[in-house]
TrEMBL record, chain A:
It is found in: Nucleus. The keyword Iron-sulfur does not apply. Protein phosphatase that catalyzes the dephosphorylation of the C-terminal domain of RNA polymerase II. Plays a role in RNA processing and termination. Its EC number is 3.1.3.16. This is RNA polymerase II subunit A C-terminal domain phosphatase SSU72. GO terms for biological process: mRNA 3'-end processing. GO terms for cellular component: nucleus. Keywords: Hydrolase, mRNA processing, Nucleus, Protein phosphatase. It comes from Ceratopteris richardii.
UniProtKB/TrEMBL annotation, chain B:
This is Symplekin. Residues 522-539 have a biased composition (Basic and acidic residues). InterPro entries: ARM-like (IPR011989), ARM-type_fold (IPR016024), Symplekin/Pta1_N (IPR032460), Symplekin_C (IPR022075). Residues 104-316 form the Symplekin/Pta1 N-terminal domain.
Length: 197, 1366
């Protein structure tokens, strides 16, 4: 039987496609109460060349993207793993969501990001929202590359970190030791900050 | 369910009871919490009436052993308290208990809940005070509980060891600071009750007064919190903080700094200092803290408020030291962009403001002042603005009320006796208020201080100036020198001086201090420190007696002590008129009429006694009288003698002014209903009558400040003044007025003193006061040029640091006010003009060209005189002798631009200036001006027509110059006839042009002179000068281009050249998609072919031509312009089938054009490839039949040569291929042999291939085509010895002919043939021809040669060949 997790988690990357979704899928599998988001203005997926990315609006179903790419160049997108990724995503949730527009999703306890820029955007966004509930949220960043290997690694790291957070009485009192432990185990130093809802 | 419904309250009650019971017994935590949640739901959403009964039961759970349950209790309490504020008193003790919990998580939860409850109650209390005017008892109870809660949270935060608790309390403190300090981002006025969202709140909303909240103490509280937070970032404390605490602390501080510009400067240095402190942090949190700090510093850097500027450099340095230089740079770039946008917006906003301000010159307030210079950091009163609205009056009255409450006098009795219902100007109300407070004596000292610190500088300055009339003309002796020396802040001094118990302190603006004249007042009631006039820095300058009209009115009511000069003085100040619209307000105080009366006692004692009579409400008049010792300023002997010109004697001869302070007045509902100036008696009686008449209903006046002229005085509020007996010694002192020069000198000295202080960096408040004071001072001594000069020099000495713009603006508005107010209008007008120009000139000379101050000056000045415009023109349009500095011109043009944007009345003049620059001789000037005109001004609808007309007239002018006689006639007809009707009647071109000139040029003398000079040999530079603007406009409005095309045919060479020169840039800018351009191309005016060709060429230079363009060109070629050159640009996009038919026409073009066309053909488009391959080109050339295609053979030959020149394109492979194809054609093309010869001449290596060709030609009996035969022989000749074996293939007859034709061949050929291997293969006749054997029957070569051309000989030849080969 799975232990009921205490906290709500959000995995955030820039397009809510690769890194955050990989982590979302993994944490979901491990019984975490988790959601995922992207902070970019649009959802960007690689295209035939670096100058021709596939751009979608947040909220476009993963299935629609899947169909679109499949129609455009099934070979290419199969080769670069996008189709598989989208297939994975559509099994997790319907569409990519934007962090900045997630107010309706309620309050998260821990936000995990995979890129410093995304981390900063999340912090800035939390500050801009105004603090109506005085509810603290831990925002953690571990940098990983935005490719399939990076995403897999990032998801594992996120899972480890969330397990550590879950294992303590309250992260507010133990975050520094969590970071220390994590750093020791994985040889990576997460950056964290405290935001407020 | 039905049972529940029918059971109603009872059913819910039972349900709740059983749930609570079960929860108590339940051991499983989750189930217990679930039950509690259900109880909460029922209580909150089903039956709230049960709340009072069951809340205590729920609260019992806070003793539960499980911490989660305790936290849940707190959370349930939060929801209940937020929904039902009545429950707060019940909840608070529980929360306070939970805050003492052993488990930090519970404490945190309690802190969070407490914080939310406090904020909610605070907002409710505040808004109820605003909307209802009082706070209900129950809410007040909740409020006092919430306050306790807040204090508990604060104390916990300071003591608690747990990091989580501490950062929660830091967050709480941040929230408190936000709540208790004014938010510049929210409206300063409260919304209507129905519009309030229940969340947003700005403390400014209750500054006008609140029944139970005291904004001042809240501000102080916020200050304490901030101080505490800042203490936490001190080096040693910060290093010890845990990660979360440190991060929340810096984030909170930076958030506060971002949202409260006033506090920015306190927080920024503290945070920047942390840059180095962070290095000392050890532990896993280090990186996170550094990252958080870096983000905070970047956020501070990105702040756009005005205070940021000073800290930028420091922030960047620190960030760079933290390896975040790139972040800093990006932030700076972003901020700069924002600032630029904001500046643009501000300019527009100011424009609207300035329009209003023109109507209210005295109350001129710049937005920057409003935004950026809130005097003290956390003083909530500081953000108060004097608003000429209904609320404003409430502000004044309620301020006093608050103050009096604070003084503990209670609100039941109104000791101040204010009449806010009367029709007083804000100024008069303020004076009355101060007077009333003074009347309260020492009790009110701090209230006065608060009041004065909160006054807007303009208002304070007016109060000062107004009261100066009440001052003795002689500065009484002052005891303290040291105090003045120690005073660096005028504000502090002034306010400080009001504290009765403090040692006497002088305002820093005192002229000087005289140690000798220490006269302590005998009577403590005359304590000078209580006199509000002490705060008046210009008191000593009063002798001239600012004769405001309001005062004049008042003076009439005075007893004979009134100094005549008071009202007769020629120096008029601007007037403030209050238009009073009564608004009912139940909170307004009762009608009281304070009357302040001032007398000057014996001057030798230098003591002023002043009595203030307060007339309270009703029939019982209470007279509160206080006498104040007036310690005014004393002029030290040196300054008296040297500067001031007031001799020692004159210190005793002082002018007396005694004017009652304008007090509460008779109330009249409509100002306009006052028929005219009332006489003294009627005023007094009116005042007395209205006292009783009005008291039942009180009004709050809406005050609208407007400038008035003297004849409007009658509509001003009527002041009633009751003069009372003098409290001082006998008024028998002789008063000797200062003469003009003495007055002036006195003003000047005073003025210098203020300026000196101005340099000292001080709080914004005091400098604002100076801004207001200085202009008024100068206005008093307006006749003295020196004062203006001093100010001018001061401003320009360091324009930015001396706040030159602000000072200049205040000065200009003051002068503008003077200009319009009659007496000194002429002087003021001149001074205004000179001052404006001088400052502008100074800015131009002293500040860097990129500085925007000049534009700002011109955009914000109350008006721009003609002189200033001329000056502006002179800097924009430098004459030939001036050294042209492009940046300076840009500075001028920017100002012109701003004027056009923001000052519609000046638009036309300024536009002319810009237009003149746009045709300036100097390129640099012209370029900049054109950029401005075309990019910025032309898009504005109100400018575009004029700009277009001007550009067109310049174009027509330059085109017409060489065609005065003939060309212009037609041009004149076309010359924008619809825009310039005068041009329609054109019989004489010259006349029309002259008319156009006059209209358009507005005296551009250069232009006219040249024009009238008749035919002028136009240089290209001149053409360029006149046409540049036109070209620039064409990029914006392509349809204008047609004019140029129309006049192109007849235009002078220079114009054409200029057109050609400009066209590339123009066309590139317009692009090939412009429909106007395509329209023009599809229907080009007659004679514009060259231009069209140029345009087409340019259009297709970079990008392939569009389908539209191709269609247009084809159509054009077929209909109008039969010039193959037209097709050249589109060739690359044509298909082979399209190119081939026109190819002969291309060959017929001049070599250069053909070359260009060839390039296009070979280049082709990216998509379709070249239209023709090189081989195809050559084949096509050979296919041309000169006769059939009417193309001279020479041109075809040239075309071939052109191809051969391009050896890289027409390679030997290409040639081989071509030759192969051609040789197969029948008939063989005429130029074939020529091409062969050329080919082999170009590529020697083709020789063997050519030999094959020749052999094939032999087999084709080449000799039958005389032209080719000649070529064949020539080729054989040139390719010997390789051609020998081909020659030997010729029939003997032809060989013989060939050898005759080219005798030089014979010897080598014979030699070659005589080789045994060759010879053996040769036919006999050949050998005969070669003379290798003698043959008696050898035929006569001559007969053969004759036979060659004839077809009849063919048979014979065949026979011969057969015999030789056999």
């Amino acid at each position: 039987m799975q232990v009921k997790m205490k906290l709500r988690y959000a995995m955030v990357c820039s397009s809510n496609q690769n890194r955050s979704m990989e982590a979302h899928a993994l944490l979901l599998k491990r019984g975490f109460n988790v959601n995922s988001y992207g902070t970019g203005a649009h959802v960007k997926l690689p295209g035939p060349s670096i100058k021709e990315p596939n751009i979608y609006k947040f909220g476009t179903p993963y299935r629609a993207m899947y169909e679109d790419l499949k129609r455009k160049d099934p070979e290419l997108y199969k080769r670069n793993g996008l189709l598989q990724m989208l297939k994975r995503n559509l099994a997790v949730k319907e569409a990519p969501h934007r962090w900045q527009e997630n107010a309706a999703d309620g309050i998260f306890d821990v936000v995990f990001t995979f890129e410093a820029r995304v981390f900063d955007i999340v912090m800035e966004d939390l500050q801009d929202r105004g603090h109506n509930f005085m509810k603290s949220v831990l925002v953690v960043n571990v940098d990983v590359k935005d490719n399939h290997e990076g995403a897999a690694l990032g998801a594992r790291l996120a899972l480890e970190f969330c397990r550590l957070v879950e294992s303590v009485e309250s992260w507010e009192d133990e975050i520094d030791s969590i970071v220390q432990k994590f750093e020791k185990q994985h040889n990576r130093r997460p950056i964290y900050s405290i935001g407020f809802y | 369910m039905v049972g529940v419904m029918s059971g109603g309250r009872g059913a819910f009650r039972e349900q709740v009871m059983s749930l609570l019971h079960d929860a108590k017994l339940q051991e499983d935590t989750a189930a217990k919490m679930d039950m509690m949640g259900r109880v909460k739901d029922i209580l909150l959403s089903r039956d709230s009436s049960l709340l009072a009964e069951f809340v205590p039961h729920i609260l019992e759970f806070h003793y539960d052993a499980v911490s989660e349950v305790r936290s849940t209790v707190a959370e349930i309490m939060e929801e209940i308290a937020l929904k039902y504020q009545d429950s707060v008193p019940l909840v608070v003790p529980v929360l306070e208990t939970l805050m003492q919990d052993n488990i930090p998580a519970v404490v945190r939860c309690a802190v969070r809940v407490g914080s939310n409850i406090f904020c909610n109650i605070f907002r409710q209390v505040a808004m109820q005070g605003i909307f209802v005017g009082h706070v209900e008892k129950s809410l007040e109870r909740s409020w006092s509980c919430a306050t306790k809660l807040k204090d508990s949270i604060c104390s916990i935060g300071k003591e608690h060891v747990n990091g989580g608790v501490r950062f929660m309390t830091f967050k709480f403190l941040e929230t408190m600071i936000f709540l208790f300090t004014p938010d510049p981002n929210l409206p300063a006025e409260s919304p209507l009750q129905q519009n309030w969202d229940g969340r947003t709140f700005n403390i400014s909303w209750i500054m006008q007064g609140h029944p139970i909240l005291d904004t001042e103490s809240l501000g102080q509280e916020a200050d304490r919190y901030l101080t505490y937070l800042l203490e936490q970032v001190s080096d040693e404390t910060f290093v010890r903080l845990s990660g979360p605490v440190a991060i929340v602390l810096v984030t909170s501080l930076s958030t506060i700094a971002k949202q409260r510009p006033d506090i920015y400067r306190r927080i920024t240095p503290a945070l920047t200092r942390l840059g180095s402190v962070c290095e000392e942090i050890k532990g896993p949190q280090r990186a996170s803290i550094i990252h958080a700090l870096r983000s905070c510093l970047v956020a501070l850097l990105r702040c756009a408020h005005s205070v940021t500027g000073n800290w930028r450099e420091l922030l960047v340095t620190v960030l760079k030291a933290m390896n975040a230089g790139d972040l800093a740079d990006a932030a700076i770039r972003q901020t700069d962009r924002m600032l630029r946008n904001a500046e643009r917006e501000r300019a527009f906003r100011d424009y609207h403001l300035s329009k209003k301000d023109k109507l209210h010159p005295v109350d001129y307030k710049r937005p920057l002042q409003e935004n950026g210079s809130v005097p003290s950091l956390l003083n909530v009163n500081s953000a108060k603005r004097l608003r000429a609205t209904a609320e404003n009056s409430v502000t004044s009255s309620q301020d006093i009320k608050i103050i009096s409450d604070a003084e503990g006098t209670g609100s039941t009795q109104n000791p101040v006796g204010l009449n806010v219902d009367s029709k007083l100007t804000p100024l008069q109300q303020m004076i009355a208020m101060i007077g009333a407070l003074v009347a309260k004596g020492e009790r009110a000292a701090s209230s006065i201080e608060i009041l004065i610190t909160s006054l807007p500088p303009d208002m304070l300055a007016d109060v000062v100036i107004e009261n100066m009339k009440n001052l003795p003309t002689s500065p009484p002796a002052l005891p303290s020198v040291a105090n003045v020396a120690g005073s660096s802040d005028a504000q502090a001094n002034m306010t400080g001086s009001l504290k009765a118990d403090e040692a006497p302190a002088l305002p820093p603006v005192n002229i000087a201090e005289s140690p000798k004249s220490v006269q302590t007042a005998a009577d403590h009631r005359r304590d000078p420190r209580r006199d509000p006039r002490r705060m008046d820095p210009r008191r000593s300058a009063v002798p001239v007696g600012g004769s405001r009209q309001t005062v004049s009115v008042a003076a009439k009511l005075e007893e004979p002590v009134v100094e005549p000069s008071c009202s007769s003085s020629g120096l008029a100040s601007t007037l403030v008129l209050a238009t009073v619209t009564p608004v009912p307000d139940s909170t307004a105080p009762v009608l009281d009429i304070p009357s302040v009366h001032l007398e000057v006692p014996e001057v030798r004692e230098e003591v002023v006694s002043r009595s203030i009579t307060v007339q309270p409400n009703g029939s019982s008049w209470r007279e509160a009288e206080i006498s104040l010792d007036q310690k005014a300023f004393d002029i030290p002997s040196d300054s008296r003698n040297e500067n001031v010109g007031v001799s020692a004697d004159s210190s005793g001869t002082l002018q007396l002014e005694s004017v009652a302070l304008p007090a509460a007045s008779s109330l009249v509902a409509e100002p306009s209903s006052i028929p005219g100036p009332l006489n003294t008696d009627s005023q007094i009686s009116a005042a007395q009558c209205t006292d009783t008449a009005v008291s039942p209903v009180s009004f709050v006046p809406t005050v609208q400040v407007e400038p008035i002229i003297s004849d409007q005085v009658r509509s001003e509020a009527v002041h009633t003044l009751s003069s009372t007996s003098m409290a001082g010694p006998a008024p028998a002192t002789p008063f000797v007025p200062l003469n003009d020069s003495q007055q002036l000198a006195l003003w000047k000295v005073l003025f210098l003193r203020i300026l000196e202080k101005h340099v000292v960096p001080e709080s914004a408040c005091s400098s604002n006061l100076r801004f207001s004071l200085l202009p008024r001072l100068i206005s008093q001594c307006i006749a003295d040029e020196e004062a203006i000069m001093i100010l001018q020099d001061f401003i320009l000495a360091d324009y930015h640091n001396h706040k030159g713009h602000e000072l200049t603006m205040h000065m200009l508005y003051q002068l503008y006010g003077d200009k319009t107010s009659g007496d000194r209008a002429i002087v003021a007008s001149k001074v205004y003009d000179d001052f404006l120009i001088a400052v502008a000139q100074g800015i131009r000379e002293t500040l860097p060209p990129t500085d925007k101050s000049l534009s700002r000056l011109f955009s914000e000045a109350p008006m721009i005189p003609v002189g200033a415009l001329k000056w502006l023109e002179s800097i924009c349009n430098p004459s030939g002798t001036d050294v042209v500095n492009g940046e300076r011109i840009f500075q001028g043009l920017s100002a012109v631009w701003i004027l056009i944007l923001l000052r519609p009345p000046l638009r036309a003049e300024c536009l002319e200036i810009a237009l003149k620059c746009a045709v300036h001789e100097v390129d640099e000037v012209r370029t900049k001006a054109i950029r401005l005109v075309a990019n910025k001004l032309y898009p504005l609808p109100y400018n575009s027509q004029r700009i277009e007309d001007f550009a067109m007239s310049m174009l027509y002018d330059v085109v017409g110059r060489e065609h005065n006689e003939e060309g212009v006639k037609s041009l004149g007809c076309e010359a924008v006839p619809q825009r310039q009707p005068t041009l329609q009647v054109v019989n004489d071109g010259e006349d029309s042009l002259a008319t156009a000139d006059k209209q358009a040029m507005h005296g551009n003398s250069v232009q006219q002179d040249r024009h009238q000079g008749g035919k002028v040999n136009l240089s290209i530079g001149e053409a360029q000068r006149c046409m540049s603007l036109y070209f620039a406009l064409c990029t914006k409005k392509v349809s204008l281009l047609r004019h140029l095309f129309e006049m192109y045919e007849n235009a002078p060479k220079a114009v054409k050249q200029a057109a050609h020169r400009n066209m590339p840039v123009l066309i590139r800018t317009i692009g090939s998609n412009s429909s106007d351009l395509l329209q023009l191309l599809s229907d080009p005016p007659h004679g514009s072919k060259n231009l069209i060709l140029l345009v087409l060429h340019l259009l297709t230079e970079a990008d392939p031509p569009s389908h539209d363009l191709i269609a247009i060109v084809k159509q054009l070629y077929e209909s109008k312009i039969k010039d193959a050159r037209l097709l050249t640009p589109i060739l690359s996009s044509l298909s082979k089938a399209e190119v081939l038919p026109i190819f002969p026409h291309l060959v017929a073009l001049p070599t250069e054009d053909f070359k260009a066309a060839l390039d296009r053909i070979l280049q082709g488009s990216v998509h379709t490839g070249p239209a023709l391959t090189p081989a195809e080109v050559l084949v096509a050339i050979h296919a041309i039949d000169p006769e059939r295609d009417h193309i001279p053979l020479a041109m075809v030959k040239d075309a071939c040569s052109v191809c051969f020149q391009q050896r890289t394109v027409f390679t030997q492979q290409v040639l081989a291929k071509v030759l192969n194809q051609l040789v197969e054609q029948t008939p063989i093309p005429m130029l074939f042999m020529r091409t062969v010869i050329l080919a082999v001449g170009t590529f020697r290596s083709l020789v063997s291939f050519v030999m094959e060709i020749l052999s094939r030609l032999v087999s084709k009996q080449i000799w039958k085509w005389p032209n080719l035969w000649i070529g064949f022989l020539k080729c054989a000749d040139q390719t010997q010895p390789h051609s020998f074996h081909v020659l030997l293939q010729l029939p003997a007859v032809q060989l013989d002919k060939a050898l005759h034709k080219h005798p030089n061949l014979r010897a080598p050929l014979t030699n070659y043939a005589s080789k045994p291997t060759v010879r053996s293969n040769l036919a006999r006749p050949v050998l005969v021809v070669l003379g290798l054997i003698q043959d008696g029957v050898s035929s006569d070569p001559a007969s053969h040669s004759q036979a060659v051309p004839n077809a009849t000989t063919t048979i014979l030849e065949n026979q011969i060949r057969e015999t030789t080969t056999s």
